Known about the structure:
The complex is a heterodimer of chains A (416) and B (539). Chain A has 416 residues and is an alpha/beta fold.
Amino acid sequence: MVSRRSFLGRAAALGLSFSLPALTARAVERRGSERPMSLITLWMQGGPSQLETWDPHPGTPIGGPTTAIDTTVPGLRIASTFPKMAEMMHHTSVIRSLVSKEGDHERGSYHVLTGYRPDPTVVHPSVGAVLSHELPATGVEIPLHISLAGGAGFTLPRGGYLGDEYDAFRIYEPGRGLINMRSRVGDSRTDRRRDGLAVVERAFQAGRTRPASETLHRQMLDKAVAMMSSEQLTAFDIDKEPAAVAAAYGDTRFGRGCLVARRLVETGVRSVQVVLDGFDTHTDNFEGCKTQAAILDPALATLLNDLAQRDLLASTIVLCIGEFGRTPRINPLDGRDHWPGGFSCVIAGGGLKTGVVVGATDPEGLRREPERPVPIADLYTTLFQAMSVDPSREINTPIGRPMKLSEGQAIGELNG
Amino acid sequence: MRLPTVVAPLAVVAAVLGVTGYAVQPPLPDRPLVSADTGGTASTIERLEGLLAKSWSAHGLTAAAPADDLTVLRRLTLALAGTVPSLEEIRRFENDTRPDRLSHWTAQLLNDVRFADYFSERLARAFVGVDGGQFIVFRRDRFTAWLSEQLKKRRPYDEMVRDMIATDGVWTDKPAVNFISAAYANDAFDENKLAGRAVRAFLGQRIDCAQCHDHPFAHWKQSEFEGLAACFGKTRMSIVGVDDGRKTPFEIEDRKTLEKRVIEPAVPFGAEWLPADGSPRKRLAAWVTHPDNRRFDRAIVNRVWGLMFGRPLIADRPVDDLPDPDDPAFNEQNAVLDVLADDFRRHGRDLRRLVAVVAGSSAFRVDSRVPENASGSTAGGCHWEVFPLVRLRPEQVVGSMLQAASIRTIDRNSHLFTRALRFFRERDFVEDFGDPGENELGERVGTVPQALLRMNGELQKDLTEPNPFNATTRIANSAPDPASCVEVAYLICLTRRPTTEESEFFTNRISEASSKKRDEAVADLIWTLFNSTEFSWNH
């Protein structure tokens, strides 16, 4: 890795316009209400069954073999495969009546990531991109919008009309080293390569001064180099975390991802997505959900506990959600199919009310529409308000079409 | 799927055979070359240049000087084959003494399988997008292969479009049907999506906004959108694939009154071009491609121009949002479009001829540099007096890296192994790099992850670090002296020779290196060139 000093010297020698921000007000030392807000989205890829997580209906025709347990919120029962979360539900609220019109993975993911339905003439920014755009952070040298993701069929949260630079920075294997972050050759060769670059750039600039600088090619390169040499990269490492902490999150990609997410939030990253895939349970839903719960339960419970212990929960919203839910009807393969008409999410932190249960689905599974339906846009309007971002602010898309950050009504029950 | 090392198992080759179906295709018969002036493209080019010149003088612009032939060859190969030219091609080109060798090379590239394959992929983005869709009813690979076949056969574009809109059948057997089946989601056809896409892709009009409300800028009405959507109102998925046999009437729920209204197929203008008989999709197809429907030819001209320059002819609007044909504010630009559109219509709507006309024009051949004291230059390429700087697409970047590292031209005649590597590397790299999707002709800059990938990525390492398979070792071992090493590296990466300053700088670097480290010095040079602005931007 190129040392910070060597880079700075190099940058000065080449007269690069880029300068590194001061590291004085370190986000990592701030706590409580002083901290800027962050969002951690736990993305349940594939569409998690609401009936096997936060909205079980045991003993009904649609309930299947899933049983329910009491939680620290009186009257709130969740699937018994979540014993650790049962002890943590007082930190959270549950929405059981999310509704969407998108029952396809790609379209559903787009909708839940952005709050907007797919529109062929515009690409909406994901919520994480909007937050990094609206709430820039000084002193943070690593990307503000990060996705800790693996698995096939994954949809990267994009910057959309805000620009590709707001795309989530993707980490494939959280806690297992960073890809492309180190030069493949030693320091001296790396330096020689960059010296050479200045010569080539000069030749290209000739006669193209303005258009060439407008490409921002060099700025992106310099930013990348700054990131490669940043001390804040240690936020991605979990080696120094106590073994007990790492064990509590679970020795899984998702568990490690949740731990890294906490560290990133401490460093000042605005939006982190941690992906858990494997929820597309068209067959063998109940066994599949048990496997998933065994990963999700310790990771989410430990994350909430950890954030609360470190006084970070007031400034961090944790949202556990997937692209849709699953059918009340159990299909002949013991599976459940896609169901965008009444599914669940768990939301915690950020000063939102806790212990609230919004909406309800029909225990018989006969009515398609849940009680108190909540469109996805309402969820994000609530979330933006909690993070002091005005959801009604309009941004002009590249074709001059004004677009609100989020359409929809705040969910009154969650306003703290 | 990630390919970890250079040396891939044979399984990769087998997979490529399976995935791409290359193996089952017979070798292409020799086709007559498009002659250099393609049956009188000269007069069209002259008219085009006359209009452009008029616009430059009207705006007080000075046109840039003609670019040198190698620069144009680079643009041409990037536009038509998706890579920079190989050293092999550069050498042959430089030995070509024919007058106007660029036109000969355009014709040659248009007959190259690389053109049909690459261009069909680019066009497919406009027609069916980039999403995987529902695999069971949508096969993007079949659709792209079909498009490629049509380009090879020089099938008239209007026939292709009629196939896409109106064909019945199964998406595997009748690949054009994928245009329709791409809009199958949530167990139903999305008539709005189909109507919106058909009008955007084939007529260059954004009418989608009218789905929910009247278009804020143009005079499209919601009712007009509904009529277009109704053209797909009989489309259904049956046991024999897609057909127009739906029995129930096409109804729309009014957003205000929530009452259902039956909507009949209708078109927003040119009602006289809509035939009275036939299935709704056949009628729509006839209307879209009607000889009097000027938007049809203009739209594809604007798009093909966009694919070649990286920016559509009407550069300040999205590629699929043309001004109205009679909008006086756009007289100048519409006139330019019409020169090309008329030529296209008069000559059998042959996409290859259209490409040849554009590539032969001075707009495609001017420099991207302007004299520092040039008057009133916009340098943005809006009037085409200077070639715009446009960021290359991810597959152009990776294609160019692979091509540069291989010396020989990579095409279907290459060894299977080389093609297999190319196939997988492109997929991995494009995924990591971030695919701009359908909005590929929008303005965009690079990102930090892309810079990291280019600087430190595995592909970059495999292609630059000395190994027996790549150009680094071959250049270091076979170039007679350090200066030739530098020259060859510049030619394979940037399709030009180094300036004096560059040549001196890098020749010194290589001379300083011990003979054992010479390949390292060459690797460093190639790394540097790969990471330059010049490499990643069309110019």
